[in-house]
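Changelog note: in this version the structure field was regenerated for every chain. One regenerated record is shown below for reference.
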Amino acid sequence: MRAMIVNCVAYQQGRKIADIPVEDISEYVSRPDCFVWVALYEPTDAEIDLMTEEFGLHELAVADARSTHQRPKLEEYGDTLFAVLRTIERGPAPDQQLIEGQVAIFVGKNYVLSVRQKTQKGFADVRARTEREPHLLEHGAGYVFYALMDAVVDRYFPLLQSVELELERIEEQIFAATAPRANIEALYALKQRLMAFRHAVVPLLESLGNISGARVPLACAGMQEYFRDISDHLQRLNQTIESIRDTVSTAISVNLSMITLQESENMKRLAAYAALIAVPTMVVGIYGMNFDHMPELHWRYGYAIVWGVMVALDAYIFYRLRKAKWL
């Protein structure tokens, strides 16, 4: 059976005290120099209810944490900060589609509770990183919240870079004039991936101003510089997303133009071949008329002359069409 509670750890003055049972959370939270960090993975309703009772969470924030389709946001409920972050992960091979998940984070003066939904990769590396930096962990729950948010945002970068590489590969195929329909389908698939990044980044960037600006929630006091760093990362991500979106739109337009140009070239070739066929058809059609008085019908060399005229006319037309690059 999969464990819903990944970790439940108490910290004091930047150092780990111990892994504690859930029923002891309220005891450690009540200590002024301690904070508790609890991580949940796809918890049951009963487990969320238990955490609500232990930490005294706001019912509206709890309702949002239960849902897996929330928009990224930061909200204050008294002295508690509630955040929803969208996670993006690469799916299994061979198609490796992007999978969207959610992390809901409750931050109080003496606690941090993270609820991970549809997100395979956990935050064990974040916990190890913070425990190696006790001088920063002394900031308490605010620093843990920063570390979690920073990890989620940093995981966007390699995925977005893979989208850029895929776009470069498709751009090379556009000018190779092969499989134009497949190119357009691939470009629209990239555009859908970019929308997933945009939906994760833009709302969070808008909400982060409440933390990195002049007015700071109590739980994040003294951490403005760190959250400004995350804001800078989000700005870079947003600029990259917009740049790739513009490039994708341009690539789609170029691909459609290449298709139109190819169709135009095909029509020119068909028209050229039709002209080559039309000349002998006209000559043969004239001599196929059933008139009695046609002097050329009785020429000794009439047949050869007609063939020579048709070949000469077609050769001249072929030369002119080739010079005009229709053939």
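Spot check on this record: The chain is about 55% helix and 15% strand. Strands lie at 5-12, 15-19, 34-41, 73-77, 80-90, 98-108, 111-117.
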